[in-house]
Specification:
mainly alpha; single chain; 4 helices; about 100 residues
Length: about 100
């Protein structure tokens, strides 16, 4: 899990340096006029934050335990956080 955490931290750094636009699902396949409607700087910030949250989740999962209730609770919280970031990507990262 540490390897996955490090990979997600590297991915966050790639997003923050502006090199990971082709790794953002949906943005890389969008037409040029659809890309003009997205604030790519904000989207990169959101993707970097999601990558860091995922890295922390991967790092902490072995410490959660093996009890199904604990694992489901941690996964549910993680999914809720991702849902919030999906909403932010479709609202805050759009140009007005």
């Amino acid at each position: 899990m540490i390897v996955f955490s490090v990979l997600f931290i590297i991915l966050a750094i790639v997003f923050l340096t502006g090199k990971g636009d082709k790794l953002i699902a949906g943005y890389n396949t969008a037409s040029e006029e659809e890309r003009q409607q997205v604030n790519i700087h904000r989207l990169r910030i959101l993707m970097a934050i999601v990558s860091v949250i995922t890295a922390v989740f991967c790092y902490l999962m072995p410490y959660v335990g093996t009890d199904k209730r604990d694992v489901l609770s941690a996964t549910g919280i993680f999914c809720l956080v991702l849902f919030v970031f999906i909403i932010l990507a479709n609202t805050w990262a759009k140009k007005k």
